Amino acid sequence: MKDNFSTQSAEYAIYRPTYPQELYDYLFTLVKNKDAAWDCATGNGQVARVLAQHFKGIYATDISEKQLSQALKMPNIVYNVEPAEKINVPDNSFDLITVAQAIHWFNFEEFYSEVKRTLKPEGLIAVIGYGVMFIDKKVDKVVHKLYEDILGKYWDPERRYIEEGYKTIPFPFDEITPPHFQIKTSWNFNQMIGYLNTWSSLQHYKKANDRNPLEYMFTELKEAWGNDAEKDVHFPILLRIGRLA
Q1: How many CB atoms neighbour CB 30 within 10 A?
Q2: Which of 234, 208, 236 is nearest to 150 (CA)?
Q3: Are 60 and 87 in contact (CB under 8 A)?
Q4: Are 106 and 85 spatial neighbours (Cβ–Cβ below 8 Å)?
Q5: What whole-number percentage of the chain has pLDDT above 90?
Q6: Side-chain-side CA neighbours of residue 223 (13 Å)
Q7: By C-alpha distance, which of 207, 5, 212, 197 is closest to 101?
Q8: Is 207 exposed, middle or buried (0-12, 13-18, 19+ CB in 10 A)?
Q9: Span 49-58, mean pLDDT?
C-alpha cells in the first residue's frame, strides 16, 4: 500500500469531504450486531468517529502515523499503525469492516484474505469512495483541465479504479446492491483550493517540478468561480457492499 497522504495530513483533515449520514444509516440497517468494527485505512478517523457512536469498539488502522495524529481520540476507538493486509487481531473479530477512499491502494488478494479471516460469519464489508466533484460548468471545466491535462501523468495508476467507479475492483463477496448516495456540501473558493491541494497527483507534481501547479491555475480558477461567496459541491459516492460468500 502506498502512503500518498502523510505530507498533507493536516490539510486532508480540514478539506476532505465527509460522507452523508444517510449512507451510514443505510449501512447500520444491514449490520446485525454492533459489537466491533474495523475501519481500515482510517486516515484522520473520519469514518471511525461516526462508527464509534454506534459500535461498542472500533479498531482503526492506517500506515500513516501523521494521518493518525490528526484523528479524533475517543474512548472506544483503538488507533494502530498497521497495513490493510495484516492486522493484529483474532479471527472472527468484526461485525463491520469499512474502507473509505483507500482500497485502490491495497493488495486486493491479501486484504480480502484478512477481511475473510477477521469478519464474523454474518459480518459486512463496505468499500466506500467518491469521484471527482461537480460544482458548475465553468469551474468543472477548469478543474478537469487541472485533473487531466496538467496532472494526468502524475496520477498513480491505481486512480483508474476510482474513475471506473470501483466497478472493476475484485469483490469476492455476496454483494448487496445499494441505493445511490452523494456527498453534498457548500464551499467557498479557498475551501476548493484547499481540497485540490490534497490531491496525491498534485503532491507528485510538486516533487517533480518544485512548484505547485495551482500557482499558475489560480487566476483561471478564480475567474471561473466568479463572485459567489459559496457554491454547492457534489461528489458521486462509490459503494460496494458484501457479506462472506
Answers
A1: 13
A2: 208
A3: no
A4: yes
A5: 89
A6: 7
A7: 5
A8: exposed
A9: 98
Spatial contact of 129 and 103, defined as CB atoms under 8 Å apart: yes
pLDDT at position 245: 75
pLDDT score for 13: 58
Please report which confidence band the pLDDT of residue 11 belongs to, taking 50, 70 and 90 as the band edges. Answer: low
Block residue for cell numbers 461567496: 229
**What's the half-sphere exposure (Cβ side, CA atoms, 13 Å) at 138?**
10
- Burial class from Cβ neighbours inside 10 Å (0-12, 13-18, 19+) for residue 60 reads buried
**In the numeric block, which cell numbers belong to residue 31?**
449490520
Please identify which residue in the block is written with the cell numbers 518544485: 210
Three cell numbers, residue 94: 468484526
Q: How far is residue 145's CA from residue 245's CA, in Å, rounded to a whole number?
A: 42
Cell of 175: 454483494
146-190 pLDDT, tens digit each: 999 999 999 999 999 999 999 999 999 999 999 999 999 999 999
Confidence of residue 5 (pLDDT cuts 50, 70, 90): very low
